[in-house]
Amino acid sequence: MSGSQRSGSRRRRRQVSEEERAAAVGDYRESVDRLQHTAYRNLRQSVAYATIFVAVTATWMLFIGQATPASFLWYAVAILSGAFGLATYVVREPRARLYVLAVAVALAVVGVTGIFLAD
Each residue of 56-67: pLDDT tens digit? Predict the structure, then answer.
């Protein structure tokens, strides 16, 4: 045990002024806002990369001759999803970017599902 504290004694908190408390709360909120912003940006980029990967894979499958006449439409939808995934980097308005990303994900899901069902 520490020699400076007696057994069972309580430490007294340092008295903080209201200005210091408000500054600490402001700093905390700012750091949480930054963390949320970067987390959303990382998630958006990961989802956009996934749709782009689906489009690249569908394009590669077209070039190697995997597409049949029944599945060609679904490959085109998958490639279109990658175009919308790339468009998320061009759109600067956050709400519009979210809509473009949602369309990209929906097209990727429909395209990949159609490819699997057609083949």
Answer: 999 999 999 988
